[in-house]
Amino acid sequence: MASSPTPNLIDPFGRTITYLRVSVTDRCDFRCVYCMSENMTFLPKKDLLTLEELDRLCSTFIGQGVTKLRITGGEPLVRRGVMTFFKSISRHLESGALKELTLTTNGSQLKKFARDLASFGVRRINVSLDTLNEEKFAKITRWGRLPQVLDGIDAALSAGIDIKINTVAIKGENEDELEDFVRWCGDRGLSQTFIEVMPMGEMGEENRLDQFWSLKDLRARLAQTWRLKEIALTTGGPANYVELAETGQKIGFITPLSHNFCESCNRVRVTCTGHLFQCLGQEIETDLRQVLRDNPDDDTALISAIKAAIDKKPRGHDFDYSRQKIAGEMSRHMSHTGG
Ligand code: SAM
Ligand code: SF4
Fold first, then answer.
1. Nearest Cα residue to 335 out of 146, 56, 76
2. Which of 31, 32, 42 for mutating ligand 2's site (highest number of atoms within 8 Å of CB)?
């Protein structure tokens, strides 16, 4: 098996970029209250990268040393033909250039696709799930149905895929089921990561300060029931982890607003329109779609554009919820950059 190419993407702060998150669609079959407004306008098809363009882009990043690829959205599994894309990208797993191919999903289509994903080398995935209560689930996701997601989780586990549950901490919504939810994950051998609501996109009537439940608070609640052992799991990402001493279960906390995680950032994001975002919390971006389309048969310009973009990766983000106002708020939705 061939090994990965030498890392070529090193930013001005010495961070090597080995992790690419790619959004394959801005569309979704849910309308989660913290992510989308009820009436979203989606992009016209011509603005989206085709599956072939997505493949070419990802493959170019892999050629420059990216070893982990996360497919996201919108809901990645509602993109038509997305299994063709997974199948094609899996050749980089076979060659050894890519170490991990994964995705973040709301779980609604997993029952349909879990076996295919497993056969294309997907070994673990993140499933977003904020509550185990059917009514609350319908309220938070607006369009989702909990049993469909739970069936999807079972299908993925049966296909041999490991699951991490991503739970957004939402004040007044999932506070009351915290301990039960953690036990539910433990019983199924699932790790769980809690996420603070981030100030992304215009939410209409929803107010992000009302939704904000601090993970400091959540963690203190957990410590009343379990003994929390700090563990060093270095993913290069924003989560820090504890282990519940009694069960061995791992719990992660993503606290971008109350904790700075930028020093070890090893990732960039590409939207479904081929725009590279150097940082989730900054407006800076680079249009790679134009470069792709202007140079259909030659990747030299694309590689140069990617390197130039990495040269502009900022040191970090400016989110701040302090003093009852949201500073550093981003105008784009998480479904646009892919979370
Ligand atoms: N549709 C897929 C899903 O829900 O997993 C993938 C895309 S979704 C944008 C990726 C992640 O972003 C989800 O875990 C979701 O909960 C999270 N997310 C969306 N909006 C957020 C916000 N404003 N603050 C914190 N997390 C958010
Ligand atoms: Fe869709 Fe995921 Fe956004 Fe929910 S969080 S609306 S599932 S993209």
1. 76
2. 32
